[in-house]
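call fold(seq) -> C-alpha cells
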Amino acid sequence: MISLERIKHAVYVLKDVARKTDMIDGHALGTDTHVYLKTENLQTTGSFKLRGAYYKISQLTEEQKKVGIIACSAGNHAQGVALAAAEMDIPCTICMPDGAPISKVEATKARGAEVILVPGTYDDAYDCALALQKESGATFVHPFDDEAVIEGQATIGLEILQQLPDVEAVVVPVGGGGLIAGVSFALKSLNPDIKVYGVQAEQAPCMHESLRYGDTTTIESVSTFADGIAVKTPGSKTLELVKEYVDEVVTVSEDEIAAAILALMEKEKLVAEGAGATSVAAVMFNKLPLKGKKTVCIVSGGNIDVNILSRVITRGLVTSGRNATLHIALEDKPGQLVGVSSIISKCGGNVINVHYSGSDPSMAITSCYLTIGLETRDFEQLQKIKEALTEAGFHLVSNISGT
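ret:
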C-alpha cells in the first residue's frame, strides 16, 4: 500500500527533476468559487505525469534497468517515461495509439524512446505493451495503476497543502485514476476535512461508471478530444483508493471542456489540453458544491494538439455565447440586409460573415434566407440582439435545410 513516508521520499527523489509548479489565483475566471490553479501544465514535459513515471523508474533495480522498460501512453506518460529513461540510460519502448497528437509522439521520440504506434485507443496500446513486455522481460511502467506511480503523483497533494494550507476543496482531472488516487490519499491523510472531487469527460466516464456500479467497469468506446483521459477501464488499485478517499466524480461535456480551455487561455494566459481543463470546466459550469469554498483546480497538462486548437477555441466561443450564427427568413427586397445589420450594430454585436440563400424549395419564390455569423460579449447580449430583430419584424428560424 502507498504511504505518506514513501510520498515524502518521492518528493526527495523528484526535487531536482519535477518543478514545484505555481499555485495562482484564478479570480479572473469569474466563478462563484474562490479558485486557485495548480499549474501542472507548466511542469517539465507539460504534464504531471513526469512525477509518477520518474519515481517509478528510479525505484527499479540495476538488473531491471539493464533489461529495459516498456510503457503505453496517449502521450503525457510517454514523455515522462522517455525523460526518465534517457537520464538513467535505460532502453525504452513506448506503445502509443495511432491517434495520439503528433506533437506528443514527436516529443517522446525526441527524448530517445522507441515509439510503436498502435491502431485504436489507449487500451489497444496497453494490450500491445503487455504483449511486448512478456516477450522481452522488460519492466512495464503502468501509467496509473501502480503504487510507485501513484506515490509520485501524490507529491502534488503535499505541494498544494504547502502552498495553500487552508484549502477546502481540490478538483482533479480523472482518466485511469492515478492522479486523483495519489492526491486524495495525501490530502485526506493530512486533513480529512478537505473535499476531493474528480472530473471526467462525458465521452470517457470509466471511473464515474465504476463508482456508480460499485466495481471496475469498462466503457465500450471513448470519444473525446481530451486524449489524456480517454481511458476505457480505470485501475483496480486506483478505484479502491478513489472509493475510500474521493468525495464525488462528475463529468463534463466536450463543449464545456472547450469553454474552459478558452477561459484559461484568455483570462489566465494559460494553455491547457482537454484533460487538463476538465477541473476548471466542472467549476465554471457548477457541477460541484463549491460555492464559498477555497478551491484548487489541478490543471494537469498543457500538451494540446495545435492542429485542433482553432476548432477548440471556436467551440469555446460558441459555448460561452461569444460566437453565434443566426438564420433569418426574409422577403427578398432592397434594404433588408441594411436593416438587419443596423440592429445588430446598435446592440453592440459584430458581423463576421454573411451568407444569402434563395434556393430552398420550401420557401416562396420572393423569399430568402440570411445566415449571419456574429461575435458577441455573452449570451445576454446575443438574446438582446434576437429580441431586437424579432421586434423589428424579422423572422428568426432555428436552422436552414442543408446548412
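The longest strand covers residues 323-331.
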